[in-house]
Amino acid sequence: MTDPSQNEELNKYAFQYDPQQVLRPKRQTGWIIIGVLLCILLGVAGTLGVIRWLNLPVSNALPESTPVADLIIAGAVNETALVIIDTHNESSQLKIANTTTNTVVIQDLTRGKLKALAASLSVQKDRVAFIKEEDGHRDVIVINTGTGLTTPLERAKLIVPTLGTQIEPCSWSPIAWSPDGARFSFFGCDKTTSMLIVVEAQTELTPVVLTNTQATQTPNRQAVWLNNENLLYTHLDPTTEQTWISRIGILTDSVPFPVYGR
């Protein structure tokens, strides 16, 4: 027989069984396992969804072999005719588009494939001056919008004796007509610099290189006609690294006059 007093002494050190204490950690572990499984399932579903999305055909997307055309508006000849640069793959053409009939081309001004970089319609809307690139060289051409006849600016006329260099139209250059349509301007580049060029266009094309506008060849220099005799243009001062807007006349020896800088 066991002494009751001994049982009482042993009970002091006996494990006190509590069902809630045993079940609580099991329940917490269960929730953790469920959370991990849910994360795994969501991750798998997300991955499958991305893969499926990548493999889905897009009905309105162009196939890789389909060329994409870019259109640049150079001006409006009248209410129904736009002068545009239509870029297609590696080439572009200068065209007149009919906005009434929605026909893409009613006249191909360039008569062939080349890369047209910039174009400007004269105020009188009878001529288009544009910069083209072909066979690694850039040229300026004026086209009559009525007849389609072209007049190129001779490359030999863009040799500047005082600089001892051959100038070509800059690839980034804008081109703009004076208000009276007698001349137009663009930027010419040599290997390291760019300068403003004014072309007399009343009879034959005669360029006037404004050497005083020569500056470091920074892309996207701009020029606008202030009137028929003066232009405003942008340039970078290499000493201060400030961008300036200056005013200059159309004569070769014209001296720039800064009007704004920052």
What would you note in describing this structure?
The longest helix is centred in the first third of the chain and has 37 residues, at 19-55. The protein is 17% helix and 44% strand. It is an alpha+beta fold. It has two domains: 68-152; 155-262. The chain has two helices and 19 strands. It starts with a helix and ends with a strand. It has helices at 4-11, 19-55; strands at residues 69-76, 81-88, 91-98, 103-108, 115-121, 127-134, 137-144, 150-152, 159-160, 165-166, 168-169, 175-177, 183-189, 193-200, 206-216, 223-225, 230-237, 242-249, 257-261. Strands 11, 12, 13, 14 and 15 form a five-stranded antiparallel sheet that branches. It has a four-stranded antiparallel sheet with strand order 1-2-3-4, with no helix packed on it.
> Share of helix among residues?
10-25%
Number of helices: 2
Strand content: 35-45%
* SSE series: HHEEEEEEEEEEEEEEEEEEE
Q: Looking at the structure, what is the overall shape?
A: extended
Mean pLDDT: 76
Low-confidence stretches: 13-17, 53-68
The secondary structure category is alpha+beta
User: Largest beta sheet, briefly?
Assistant: 5 strands, antiparallel
N-to-C span: 108 Å
Radius of gyration: 37 Å
Annotation, overall tally of beta strands: 19
What is the domain tally? 2
Oligomer: single chain
